[in-house]
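FAQ: What does the model actually see?

It sees only this:
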Amino acid sequence: MTKNNFSSREKEIVIGTILGDAHIASLKTHARLEVNHSEKQKDYVLWKYNEFRNMVGAKPHEIHIADERYNKTYKQWRFSTKVHPELTEFHQLFYKKGKKIIPKNIGSFLISPLSLAVWFMDDGGRRNDSYGLFLNTLSFTKNEHRVLIKVLKENFSLDCRMHWIQDGFRIYIPSAEAQKFCTLVYPHILPSMHYKLSFNPVTTSFARLDRARDRKT
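And it is asked to produce this:
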């Protein structure tokens, strides 16, 4: 177990990571953070590893996931932190009976653009037929979406919506809010993730739309 306390930056990254793809595993003593992304996002895994280097032992390693349905094998990159009391606190906050939840006081934690950027890099994307963006929050309940949307409004002045897609709800950031959102997160977005944004605050240009491709998906 590492004895180092989390820095404020590390906590902000943890919050975004928990809201996104990461998993906090509760072990016998305390909990650890498990990070796992696709081969395409290897640079992102290495960035997270570097950010958490004070509490990580083994370096990220490649694993292979077999999908028997399509007879394919996918490469992923993974690492875990050491167990830590603060991660145990996060586990108690964000998990109930082994399922990830949104705590009612999430507004006290989701306050940094860095957290928002990490969440977006984990689980976000943009549409092709508009400048709207989204956060894939399919595992959360309708009420949890309402809580998150309220926090995004109160803490970041973002007017977001809840959209139903095939497998559940996700948070939608309308075109009218895209420039504001992208300006907020851009300083923290890795260059390899810029393709997810619909507006570039540096060039002040919007992404090219591809309505025909969007209609096919």
